[in-house]
Amino acid sequence: MSDVAVTDLDHTEHADHHDVKPVRKTAMWVFLGSECVFFGAMISTFLLYRNTTNGGPGSEIFDIPFTSASSFVLLMSSLTMVLAHNAFEKSDMRQTRIWLSGTALLGATFLAGQIFEFTEFIDKGLTLPRSPFGSSFYMLTGFHGMHVALGVILLAAMAVLSLSGRLYDDRGLNVELVGLYWHFVDIVWIVIFTVVYLLQI
Amino acid sequence: MTAQVQTIRSPGDRGVWAWITTVDHKRIGLLYAVSAAAFFFIGGLEALLVRTQLLGPNLEVLSAEAYNQLFTMHGLTMVFLVVMPIAAAFTNYFLPILIGARDVAFPRLNAFSYWLFIFSGLLIYSSFFLGGAPDGAWVGYAPLSTQLTEVVRMDFWTIGLSTLGISSIAASANFIATAFTMRAPGMTMLRMPVFAWMSLVVAFLLIFSLPSVAIGLFQLFLDRNFGALFYAADAGGDPLLWQHLFWIFGHPEVYVLVLPAMGIVSEVLPTFARKPLFGYPFVVFSGAAIGFIGFGVWSHHMFTSGMGPIAEAGFGVATMIIAVPTGVKIFNWIGTIWGGKIKFNTPMLFSLAFVAMFVIGGLSGVTHAVVPSDTQQHDTYYVVAHFHYVLFGGAVFGYVSGVYYWFPKWTGRKLNETLGKIHFWLALIGFNLTFGPMHVLGLNGMPRRTYRYPEGLGWANWNAVATIGAYTILVAFLVFAWNIVRTHYLNKGERVGNDPWDGRTLEWTIPSPPPVHNFDETPIVHSLDDFWHQKYAENEEGRAVRMPAVTGAADDQGDIGRADHGTPEGIHMPSPSYYPALASLGIAITGGGLVYLPWGFAAIGVGVVVMLWGLFGWSLEPVTKEH
Known about the structure:
The structure holds two protein chains of two kinds. By secondary structure, chain A is mostly helical. Chain A has one domain: Four Helix Bundle (Hemerythrin (Met), subunit A). Chain A has six helices and one strand, in the order βαααααα. Chain A is elongated. Chain A starts with 6 loop residues before the first strand and ends with a helix. Chain B has a single domain (15-576), classed as Cytochrome C Oxidase, Chain A (Up-down Bundle), CATH 1.20.210.10. Chain B is 63% helix and 2% strand. Chain B contains 18 helices and five strands. In chain B, the strands form two sheets. A two-stranded antiparallel sheet of chain B has the order 1-2. In chain B, strands 3-4 form a two-stranded antiparallel sheet. In chain B, helix 3 packs antiparallel against helix 4 (107-126), helix 4 packs antiparallel against helix 6 (153-181) and helix 8 (240-273) runs antiparallel to helix 11 (346-367). At the A-B interface, strand 1, helix 1, helix 2 and helix 5 of A face helix 4, helix 6, helix 7, helix 8 and strand 5 of B.
């Protein structure tokens, strides 16, 4: 999505020392900083409404063992992401592709778990318009789910691009930057799982 | 690769297509500036209609419905479509040049930010033709904004503001990456000009404040369209949550609007007082301090909402504290002009007026820190007077000063001084006539957003004065517009060289207007105000004396040190691209579809396809084309 800074083609002394990677990494860190406030605002909203069930179902409908299992799947995907990045640094494209696909698969498994969980909750009467609790629960976890889905698309796109040898290191989103994003999405889930599910017990 | 490569960004340099596909930070800056100017006249017209309605008691120039739309759109336009983009215009054009870079970090992302801004503005304004503009005030307090459901007006506001937010976050990440990683050799953080510093602080403010209101807007959108209950008090929802989410953004936003203007003033005052900026590190760090403390004062907008005495005392004290770094800046500016050889030309006059008007607005702001007094002033015209002194007498005067100051760099011609002075005095007098009386009106109890008022309350005379003042401002800015047309389009302006003001910073070392690649050779920076030190040395009495060396600053590049020895032909700039404009068009179409749910799903489909087309084309196209 992003492009490289203006490049000098004449390789002077200065140009050689000018590494373009920190430019994109800086932007990614800034973006993740912004994301923290996005999630912070939604987590605050949820904390405000955690007991405002408006006569509808509350946290008692959560299935902690099930969500723990899917959280474990998501956290394991951080491990495979690290392995993918490691293989990419060693220019081992086959291993990179395997671990990228594995990470995307784990992410997709987590998403499937979330969709299953949502249908269960809706069956039990917890919907977006049911209560402020429902509104803030679905907005927070749904917004996180959309982040996971975007990550899965990016990981799958990288795995496909690596087939045609177009997985660049020096421009656009590379494995490292997508990795940063992915780890962030995982860490946010740890916070959400704690605040939304575990604190309710 | 060693072959000489054209500097010109092919294909073509002229015509509409070249502007649509441009990724040059200077052209994007000019696009921002022209768009902001157009919106400024539209927003001003809305204000004039509002003022005409309030000219006398019991008038009925406008319907109450139209009045609500006009004051809402006036606020929305001036904040999001005028002042933020004009700040973005200056940052785009000058941040890279001031730090010695050839472009921003992500040129195509930069184009994307501009196009998303202009499409969002057009989306919001299309509401006038599609059933009515937003009418719930620019702050859109719930539950009013969730209950205005019979038409889609407030959805134009929730969606338009959200897409504008995406544009600003992208631009801010871009500016931060630029300032952190693209500085020329020797350009340390504490050698960056104050304007570059303030742009950096503003980028951080936006990055951390916009998400808060974005979430609030999204919640409002879900409440309005999907029956969510975030702000439904009867179901246990808390409308006060909206006020918190909005003002956690809204108060830093105030500094977003004014800090770049402070940066401009910090460039203009030293140039025309012929002295270095007094206390450079204090100006920089007080700007950063304002950025930090700015996140801790939001609730002073909510003193009447019943937060309880502890919160009110805390936010009252924080509000008093933030006046301290602001005061530090004021004293530094006074120290800068103190004993200087002041040249009273138009940019200097506007900068001086900025300082004076901002002091008035700042002092009336501190009165809001005192909770009992604020409770009396809340939602009266006193507040309207206060923030117009800060945002018009402050921010807008600062940006106008910047236009006069940098116009020669943009076009190679100076704006006319006589017309400039007429503009200045009309604007200053008109401004004070308009907003000065509002202090009195507010203290006499006239509420904001009032459509009509009866006779016999003692409000009529001051309202008439304010309306006369508003028309004076219109005349002033018509003179300004004529000055620009005359200078630039009728070619009547005085031609100037590289350095018409005997400036201090890097932009004056390069031609006016600058070439596409800015610097033929990357400059090496040795000190703060490097260019000044190239031109002047100190004699025994500590007075600046012009160096006899063949600097010839007004005509050529001077003897600035060089980091590389490339010729202009060896510099490769990124190729133009239409994908950023396409991607942002897709987002705007999607937004338009969201406004018209559930019928808008077709538009959302089209919009998403266009957006993905843009994003994929963007990701996969080469940054530079081989020739």
